[in-house]
Amino acid sequence: MFNNPRFLNFIANIIMLVAILALLVGAGSWVIKQPRFNITKMVLEPKEGNTLLHVSPANIQAVIAGHIDGNFFTVDLPALKEQIEKAPWVRNVDISRVWPDGLLLRIEEHEAYAKWNENQMINTWGEIFTANRAELDSNVEYPQYNGPDGSEKLIVQRAGELATLLSPLNLHIDTMSLSDRYAWQVKLKNGLELILGRDGGAEVVDPLGGSQEAVSFAENVKRFVQAWPVLLERTKGRRIKKVDLRYTKGFAISFDQAVVNEESTEKK
Description:
This protein is an alpha/beta fold. 33% of the residues lie in helices and 24% in strands. The longest helix has 28 residues, at 5-32. Its main location: membrane.
């Protein structure tokens, strides 16, 4: 075998090929480790149809500090994406490399729709997120929603339905709360309180079954909307504080006692 020139030439070619490949791998490894490929630039852009009102390069730098492992060639983009999406106001980010030492971040911000429970918010997708409420637009009056864990999408849905039903009266939601027993209570911006009772359509999320004394959400509100103008006429300007809609054929009202007492005093 070793006296065969053709076989020896073949072995020599293999050894040379392996040596060349090893040299190329070593050279490639040396090149990609050069400092010029370290990530030194990061550009933020809003995704199409979005604007960046709250997210800044400083915010992103603070979140990713100590989490960028590697350079232009070796940085773990999925891990970096996961870390950046933990930043306040960042709903989604797409990351691409920019030759030779940069990253382009296309960011979608959360768009606040309402305040949620004590210190969180709900975006326009019905998703909960945590950010500094002091950064909310002071020119916008955000409603306050309260409810059990996992009920945020139901509340957003019901709030939309209620806003539509109340629109003929030009009444708007200030606070909307869903109890642990899945009963609704609403305070409007004019101070009026609506007690709507248990939600007959919440069985899919209600741990208690949603059937005990459940009332029709839409039908009861429609009845209130139809009767409200007439009711205001009949009450002769007395301020109504609360409307209880937990009835199948009507509703109960409570007057603002402070106003009633004040009127009685004036008459004396």
